[in-house]
Amino acid sequence: MSTPSPSPGSKRTRTESTPSCARVAAEHRRQMSMPVVHTETPCSACFRVSVANWFAAHESAGFPVPFAFYCKQDTDQSRKCVGCFESKGNCIQLPVGLIGHRFELLAVLAWLAEFCRIPGMVPEATSELALKVRNIMGAFFKLLEQHQANEIADYASWLANHQPEYRVPLGNPVKWHYLWERSRACPKLQYSEENVNFWMASLANFHNSVSAVMAALFDPTSAEIRRIEQHLGDFPVPLPLTF
Ligand SMILES: [Zn+2]
Ligand SMILES: [Zn+2]
User: Structure pTM?
Assistant: First the structure.
């Protein structure tokens, strides 16, 4: 028995069309609500939250790596990231002039994560390494304050003078090397400039501290020591010479 076609506007017509409309709306919402997580380019607030959360996780779980920034962008919500939208805070991206240093920091953290995969690494050592990360993060916060506190009078001119012509070479398979190449291709303070010494000292101190943790942990005759020494020599950022 065939069912008669409903007249336009009847209840039956609305009932049949509703699931379809709902599907379209749901699909639209789904497409608009596929958040993107920025793991390299957090906003200033998420940068601080990511660092704090990472240390909190370390203190409760005792294993600090790998570190990653977390700043979620849901285009359905707002121009703000989700964290700033929910906290009703200002969503301010890290200053452009910091991008090169941000990649330096990420390169160093990626390099450190490799250490924690070396067989024989123990929780005590990773706790020590986490403290070293706290120091380097503190130095990066100082760089951030330097840029946000209007210490650089003419930021546009400053940026124009800090645009490297360097291009990232294709096919760099090692993550921290790749991040270091990205750093070279982005604006940042040059090592001969003022106000960069504390950052370079922090990087050098970080390398020396990690080296000391490794020396204390592994016997010089152990099987892992060759790999450790090689990795120490593979630090991504060229360090200032010390005499
Ligand atoms: Zn964010
Ligand atoms: Zn934000």
Answer: 0.78
